[in-house]
């Protein structure tokens, strides 16, 4: 893969307006963490096929006001094929991590 795009979803573990049941609720990031150029961001292109160990640094400092209000949150990071000329931007990797922020 000579090109990849990364999208990140941030969620908070809480109740909703309509239910007292706790669940993961997506926090809007207004596109700040969508369609990130993975090659420029992580400097790991071209990606090889097969089992890989990738380090994907993610700067969420722009979201610190939002994250600072959360006690438990989840990051879902998806990587998509963005090879030049590719019409099918298939998902090629995904990782989800859940964390609790201690005061």
Can you tag this structure with a few keywords?
103 residues, mainly beta, five-stranded antiparallel beta sheet, 2 helices, 5 strands, 9% helix, 37% strand
Question: Would you mind describing this structure in some detail?
Answer:
With 103 residues, the chain is mainly beta. It has 2 helices and 5 strands. The chain has helices spanning 38-42, 64-67, and strands at 4-14, 23-27, 36-37, 72-81, 91-100. Strands 1, 2, 3, 4 and 5 form a 5-stranded antiparallel β-sheet that branches. The protein is elongated and about 45 Å long.
Structural class assignment: mainly beta
Strand content: 35-45%
DSSP strand count:
5
Global mean pLDDT: 81
Cα distance spanning the termini: 41 Å
Q: How many helical elements? A: 2
How many structural units, i.e. domains? 1
| Rounded radius of gyration (Å) | 16 Å
Q: Helix proportion of residues, in percent?
A: under 10%
The ordered string of helix (H) and strand (E) elements is EEEHHEE
Main pleated sheet? 5 strands, antiparallel
Query: What characteristic shape results from the CA principal axes?
Result: elongated
Low-confidence stretches: none
